[in-house]
Amino acid sequence: MLVRRRSGIAVLIIAGPLGGCASSGQPVAGPEPHSVYHCGQMEIRVTSGENRDLLGIDYLDRRLLLKPAESAPGALYVAPGDDQTRFWSKGERATLTIRGETYPECVVPGAVKMPFEAKGNEPFWRVVVSGAELQLERPFEKDGVKRLEVEKVMADRHGRRFQARGDDLNVRLTVARQLCQDSMSGAQYPAQARLTVNGQTYNGCGGDPQRLLRGAEWVVEDIADGGIIDSSRVTIRLLSDNRVAGRGSCNRYTGSYRLTGEGIGFGAIAPTRMACAPALMDQEARFLRILGDVSRMRIGREGQLQLSTPSGATITAIQSTGDTP
């Protein structure tokens, strides 16, 4: 069913955080019966159903039961009567689609989305890992990109360590799944990274920043320090193809967003045209106006999403614990 296959690269289990990884020398095992994946911000659990031919997907407050379907390569499961709900997996990666919405690539704890990019400042360095190749822009060097073969991948539930050699270079990239903030731009990334080249170590950040935002429905708790009206619901979903959607208070809205190294921006937001109580309509207008002016995003210490405008107005939201149809 869900089988993790090893490639030609040596893959070992490691233990411990970013600062000290020790190899056990054992191959990475296949998924346990209760496998956990992270699809951006959403955690799912994959289990065998009561009927062994079924696969269970537990997410938020819901459970899906899927049947196996033909797929090559990998394993594919589809909801009976709904081919827009499916789960495909191969190795330590998977894709989940629910009612036509495809979530960010799902990876087992510690794994990273490929290709994986990490970089640091003062001095600048950059690494891109893709399959069995590691591309390196070295600190203090201006001789272009070095392409090295990844010889070994050390793995545990906290992160990965990639080792590569070539051109008299001994390179190790250690990645820990922990929120990281760029020392110059202030942008946030889903992983901390540590690069070691011939014994010299440099720190930085890595991963796709969209994984901090996508996979969750964000429920707004405060709009510009004014709170929100009791029993009203204001939400934000960051979707694929740079789409945004949610509830404004009364109406649903759709639009677009763009994520850059300096921040985030929203554009072309269009609400539906239902009428509600004046207070809800006023709250919705204020929310959409501020959302359209947002230029910065930040994940707070307690996991809250903070969206800020240049004038200092902030929208604060937390992740929903339930799935909204």
Report on this model:
By secondary structure, the protein is mostly beta strands. The chain has one helix at residues 278-293, and strands spanning 10-15, 22-27, 35-39, 42-48, 55-59, 62-69, 75-79, 82-90, 93-98, 101-102, 106-107, 116-120, 125-130, 133-137, 146-156, 159-166, 169-176, 180-181, 188-189, 191-197, 200-206, 217-223, 235-239, 243-247, 252-259, 264-271, 296-299, 305-308, 314-319. The strands form 4 sheets. The protein has an 8-stranded antiparallel beta barrel with strand order 12-13-14-15-16-17-20-21. An 8-stranded antiparallel β-barrel has the order 3-4-5-6-7-8-9-11. A hairpin with a 2-residue loop joins strand 16 and strand 17.
Q: What is the structure about, briefly put?
A:
This protein is mainly beta and 325 residues long. 5% of the residues lie in helices and 52% in strands.
Lateral arrangement of strands in the main beta sheet: 12-13-14-15-16-17-20-21
SS summary, helix count:
1
Radius of gyration from the alpha-carbon trace, in angstroms: 22 Å
- The number of E-state strands comes to 29
How helix-rich are the residues, as a percent range?
Answer: under 10%
Spatial gap, N to C terminus:
29 Å
Q: What class do helices, strands and sheet pairing give?
A: mainly beta
Stretches where pLDDT is under 50 for at least 5 consecutive residues are 1-17, 19-33
H/E element string? EEEEEEEEEEEEEEEEEEEEEEEEEEHEEE
Q: What proportion strand?
A: over 45%
Mean pLDDT across the residues is: 88
Profile the largest sheet.
Answer: 8 strands, antiparallel, barrel
Rough shape?
A: flat
